[in-house]
Amino acid sequence: MASSSIFNPPSSTTALLLRRTRHPIHVGPTSLRFLTSQSAPPSSHLVSFAASATEASVAKVIDGKLVAKQIRDEIAAEVSRMKEAVGVIPGLAVILVGDRKDSATYVRNKKKACESVGINSLEVNLPADTTEEQVLNYISGYNDDPSVHGILVQLPLPSHMNEQNVLNAVRIEKDVDGFHPLNIGRLAMRGREPLFVPCTPKGCIELLHRYGISIKGKRAVVIGRSNIVGMPAALLLQREDATVSVVHSRTSNPEEITRQADIIIAAVGQPNMVRGSWIKPDAVIIDVGINPVDDPSSSRGYKLVGDVCYEEAIKVASAITPVPGGVGPMTIAMLLQNTLTSAKRINSFQ
Ligand SMILES: NC(=O)C1=CN([C@@H]2O[C@H](COP(=O)(O)OP(=O)(O)OC[C@H]3O[C@@H](n4cnc5c(N)ncnc54)[C@H](OP(=O)(O)O)[C@@H]3O)[C@@H](O)[C@H]2O)C=CC1
Ligand SMILES: Nc1nc(=O)c2c([nH]1)NC[C@@H]1CN(c3ccc(C(=O)N[C@@H](CCC(=O)O)C(=O)O)cc3)C=[N+]21
């Protein structure tokens, strides 16, 4: 369902269309216009890589917000089809421990997103001094609750808790975050299939697919190796037949390695770390980073920026995700998709 793409051009035209040109070309009925960062919707992305001869070329902006909306529409249709056919409504349980503001915002956004597609959301907010045992009890209850098809424990957990114990307790059939070691292990093994793929890396790959950006045979560099983003992103890219390098805090020459990449996934948590000079001309950039930086001109007093210096990157890359509006909305869309998949699998509904 969601993997079918309206954006994918036939593979033979993909390479042609993704090659940036300084001369306008014409594809079908739409003549090519120079597009700035506020670019066209995905349905016309195929024609938006070209720049006029007189203007500097800029990267295509990969619109995660728009793609996520499209995926939510697809999910909503499937949710109602299942409800009508077998009377089952997918359910997602979210466990939030502590009072981190950013976590509370994410959980609220997830709840809103569930409502928008007709998925039931159950939420439990526990105080920061909750014991690990109490959290395990909630997980056990949701594991046994037939109305719950997905369980998400919001990370990070308070430091007195053992994250491994908690994540291990989620039944793998309900592990919609894809963080259970058995799901990650299967993701890493050839010929094995995880029940769920972690949402953020899955969203990155989905964006590449939906924009017709081929991965096979490409050099990819993932910056960051966390269990929730960098490591599974590298595994997924490898499954898609990219040749993958992973850069981390102990890498001695990150700039040089990154400059070799056709595809860069940055998941570091360092604002604007990846500069224009790190980027090979025409590389594709997926910026996962979400970093608050002071901004007195904003009503919140801060703004969000990525791990990639957007202003510099947009002049060098062929395509880039913005922050906000790039990977973030896709993470939530993939969570909904995983929850739907889980409900279908548990109920043997195709
Ligand atoms: N858009 C979305 O949906 C999501 C966004 N995020 C955002 O993505 C970013 C990364 O998140 P997450 O993976 O959880 O972060 P972690 O802090 O868990 O991991 C960061 C990784 O980056 C590496 N790193 C840190 N500093 C450097 C450096 N100077 N040079 C090279 N590598 C470095 C670390 O290396 P080492 O392993 O050596 O310590 C580590 O592997 C954050 O900004 C986060 O907010 C996260 C989840 C979802
Ligand atoms: N168990 C678990 N699973 C997660 O998937 C998980 C987690 N814990 N802990 C924290 C990180 C972070 N994360 C984000 C999800 C959506 C946006 C998102 O929607 N961002 C919007 C804007 C957000 C805003 O404006 O504040 C955007 O980038 O456009 C961001 C970050 C999921 N995470």
TrEMBL record:
Pathway(s) per entry: One-carbon metabolism; tetrahydrofolate interconversion
Keywords linked to the UniProt accession: Hydrolase, Multifunctional enzyme, NADP, One-carbon metabolism, Oxidoreductase, Photorespiration
Gene Ontology molecular function: methenyltetrahydrofolate cyclohydrolase activity; methylenetetrahydrofolate dehydrogenase (NADP+) activity
Domain Tetrahydrofolate dehydrogenase/cyclohydrolase NAD(P)-binding: 198-345
Occurrences of domain Tetrahydrofolate dehydrogenase/cyclohydrolase catalytic (ranges): 62-177
Annotated InterPro entries: Aminoacid_DH-like_N_sf, NAD(P)-bd_dom_sf, THF_DH/CycHdrlase, THF_DH/CycHdrlase_cat_dom, THF_DH/CycHdrlase_CS, THF_DH/CycHdrlase_NAD-bd_dom
Gene3D superfamilies per record: Leucine Dehydrogenase, chain A, domain 1 (3.40.50.10860), NAD(P)-binding Rossmann-like Domain (3.40.50.720)
Pfam families: THF_DHG_CYH, THF_DHG_CYH_C
Biological process according to GO: photorespiration; tetrahydrofolate interconversion
Reaction catalyzed: (6R)-5,10-methylene-5,6,7,8-tetrahydrofolate + NADP(+) = (6R)-5,10-methenyltetrahydrofolate + NADPH; (6R)-5,10-methenyltetrahydrofolate + H2O = (6R)-10-formyltetrahydrofolate + H(+)
Cellular-component GO terms for this entry: cytosol
UniProt cross-references to HAMAP family, sorted A to Z: THF_DHG_CYH
Record family assignment: Belongs to the tetrahydrofolate dehydrogenase/cyclohydrolase family.
Function, as annotated: Catalyzes the oxidation of 5,10-methylenetetrahydrofolate to 5,10-methenyltetrahydrofolate and then the hydrolysis of 5,10-methenyltetrahydrofolate to 10-formyltetrahydrofolate.
Oligomeric form and interacting partners: Homodimer.
The name this protein goes by in its record: Putative tetrahydrofolate synthase
